[in-house]
Structure formats: C-alpha cells, structure tokens
Amino acid sequence: MNILVIGSGGREHSLSWKIAQSPLSDDLYVAPGNGGMGDIAICTDLDTSDHDGVVSFCRTKNIEFVVIGPEAPLVEGLSDCLTAENITTFGPSAAAAILEGSKGFTKDLCSKYNIPTAAYGRFSDAHAAKEFVATKGAPIVIKADGLAAGKGVIIAETLAEANTAIDDILGGQFGEAGAELVVEEFLIGEEASFFVLTDGVNILPFGTAQDHKRVGEGDTGPNTGGMGAYSPAPVMDAEMVERTINEIIKPTVTGMAAEGHPFKGVLFAGLMITEKGPELIEYNVRFGDPECQALMMRLESDIVPALMACAGDNLNKISVQWSDKAAMNVVMAANGYPGSYEKNTLIGNLEQAGSADNVVIFHAGTKKDGEDILATGGRVLNITSLADNVTQAKNDAYAALDKINWPDGFCRRDIGWRAVIREEND
Ligand code: AMP
Ligand code: GLY
C-alpha cells in the first residue's frame, strides 16, 4: 500500500520511520518532509492547504492511506476532504479537531460531561475578563481560545500581568485565535502527556510521556514547542492511567460522539496530576512533538494497522506491544529560539553521531543541500535513544548529541531531570 504522511517535524519523521518498517508500506511519501527523511520516504512539495490538490496527488500516486501529523490541516478539514473521497485517513474531522482548535469548546465539554479540569470563564470582553480575574486572584492562567502555535497561554503571576495578557489577546496579538479567551485557575502538580488512539467508540491507550516546554534548564524561560521528552512518564502509573481513562478520556470520547462529532485519531491529553488526581489542561488532536519521537522508539508493533483502525470501527481488534525500556528525545534548536535565529547554518557529523544501535536522530527544521544538512527551523534535531532506564537513555542521547558539529545550535542538558531523580532515589 502507498502511504502519505503530512508534515515536516520531528513528529512526522518518527512516524514515517515507524511506518516505513511496516510490511504494509510500499511507497511512502511525505509532504513536505525535511532534510532527514529522504532515505525512508519520498519528500514532495505539496500545498497541503489545497485539499483538492492533495486528493489528486493521492489519486496519481495510488495512495491508499494518509497520516496527518500537525493540527492545522486537521482543523482546516483535510481529513474530512480525504475521507469524503474514500481515502483512508488518520486524523479527526474538523468538527472533532475543535477539541484543540477551541479551548473554550473543550472547557464547556468538560463542564457538561464532568471531566476534571481547572475552573474557568470564557470571555470576549476585556472588562468582564478583568472583573473575573480580580475575583479569582493570581496566579491565574489566560489563554487565547484558538490555535496560537503554542504561544497563546500566559501564566500570570500578578493581576497586572493577567490584565495585560487580556488586553494583548483581545487586542489582536494572536489575530482571530484571540477573538475570545479562557481564564483558568492555576493548577499545581506534575504534568504528563497521555495518548490514546480511538475510532470514536473504542479506546486504545497509546503511551505516556513527559516533555519540557520551557527553553531553559530547570524548566525556566519562555515556552517552546518542546525541548525534549521521555517515555514512559513515571507519574503515570497503572492506577493513574486507569483513572485518566475513566475520568477524562472515556467521557470525552462518548461526549464527542453524543455531540455528533465522534473523535477518530489520536487524542493527546495534557494532564496535571494534582493532589486530587488527573486534571485536563488541554487536548491536542495529534501526537505530541517531541513526545511522539520517544513513543515511536518504544513501540514494538506495526503502527500501520493501529493508525488505520482509527478510521474504521474495529479498534477493539487491535493490540500493540511496547518496549519496557525508557526512551528519551533531546531537541537541538537554533541559537536564539524561541526568538529569532539564523537559518541555513551547516550541521556536521550527523551520521557518526547517530550510529549507535539504540539511537536515532529525527530531523525537524532541516533541509538537504547536496550532501550537506542545513538548519532551517527553530527546533532542528531530535536525538532519541532507548535504554534500560531514563538515566541510561539520557546518557546515550547526550553522548550522541555531543558528536554533532553544529555551533549554531543548543540544547537543554537536563531533559528527564524528574525521572533521573526518581531513579536515583529508587
Ligand atoms: P497549553 O498550551 O494549554 O498546554 O499550556 C501550555 C503550558 O501552560 C502547559 O503545559 C502548562 O505548563 C501551563 N498551563 C496551562 N494551563 C495551566 C493551568 N490551568 N494551570 C497550570 N499550568 C497551566
Ligand atoms: N509537546 C507538546 C505538544 O506537542 O503540544
């Protein structure tokens, strides 16, 4: 079967790497792909916002299965369009992708179906939002309702900061995504990422991870897309997984079906494990990046039947095996990220750096220029390893990373610190 993966990040590189190992995969295409994917897939320039163009590409290349990596094409309805043309597609409909596309929608769903989450209010009027904030006090969380490339959440330490965030968001800082905002109680606890596949009815747990969103060591500084992740997340023990499925995932899946928008795809719950138990911070309607890279290292089964089953109604027939080992993914980003950074800088010694059996380097913002690999994005490389425990996975990932010759890039040196401390204390 010919397969098309949509996207260009480390997430899509790791998904493609796993799909390419499937006996079901013949020609694997990726649009647009990146500088590291040429040896496992055929990279193709395809305007994925031109849905008819994607359909006709699928027809020309006999593509029978499409995997949509990022949220934007989902929210724009690419999955609906391909499904209407009878092309099996992994990724929810636009109506279901609203779980990520509108934070206010998700909060209302939580409220209606009793899903534990932070207390909140929805506002499009700055005065009303500020009055609400004044009654709640700081710290408090202000969120643009729509997609804001991971930048639409402000943790306000003071009321003044909260008021500024309200003015900025409603004043157009994030364009249409900020026409409305959510004000949310600040939750205290440990964060975890939890993934399930679902066909709208059946639920298949698909791994746990923790990522590091802040740019600086010790989880300080501005938020990024994610500077590293590891899987599994120690805080998600069997009891916490079961509670999350029963208290958060099941009511969401049945609630979305009851609302007439069954969710089919991967549901990524960003959780805060508070002293009361798991609470939902947000939903994403796609795999996490960099979490996916760690998950793919641990997945032993063929991923293709599991992803395809989400589009049908027999996900209950699928089971998958996971390695008991720990996977870690350390992100290398361009100096300056998440602010401005230089492009087209040269990265050297990648082949040797990635030569260990338990290490894979997934690319993100790179391009191939002849034999050279150039950095073109903010997050550029994902150095990913699999080992007996997080401490070993961390050592192996950094040993590989230190062989890379890229003076224009940096990484955090403390990815996995919580898990490493846990292992030291065991
Ligand atoms: P989000 O984009 O919704 O995942 O938010 C980005 C980050 O902001 C999360 O990973 C959390 O670290 C933090 N955050 C969001 N909402 C809350 C909340 N209600 N309480 C505490 N931290 C939050
Ligand atoms: N790593 C968090 C995300 O993908 O949203």
Folded structure, characterized:
It is a single chain. With 426 residues, this protein is of the alpha+beta class. It folds into four domains: 2-93, Rossmann fold, CATH 3.40.50; 125-179, Dna Ligase, domain 1; 190-317, ATP-grasp fold, B domain (D-amino Acid Aminotransferase, Chain A, domain 1, 2-Layer Sandwich); 326-425, Alpha-Beta Complex (Glycinamide Ribonucleotide Synthetase, Chain A, domain 4), CATH 3.90.600. The protein is built from 14 helices and 23 strands. It has helices at residues 10-20, 51-60, 71-75, 78-84, 94-101, 103-112, 126-136, 159-170, 238-258, 291-298, 303-309, 350-353, 390-401, 417-425; strands spanning 2-7, 28-32, 42-43, 63-68, 88-90, 120-123, 140-144, 153-156, 181-185, 190-198, 203-211, 214-216, 220-223, 228-231, 265-274, 277-284, 326-334, 345-347, 359-363, 366-369, 372-375, 379-387, 409-410. Strands 10, 11, 14, 15, 16, 17, 19, 22 and 23 form a nine-stranded antiparallel beta sheet that branches. A five-stranded parallel beta sheet has the order 3-2-1-4-5, with helices on both faces. The chain has a four-stranded antiparallel beta sheet with strand order 6-9-7-8, with helices on both faces. Strand 7 (140-144) and strand 8 form a beta hairpin. The longest helix is centred in the middle third of the chain and has 21 residues, at 238-258. The protein is globular. The model has no long low-confidence stretch (mean pLDDT 97). The structure holds adenosine monophosphate (AMP) and glycine.
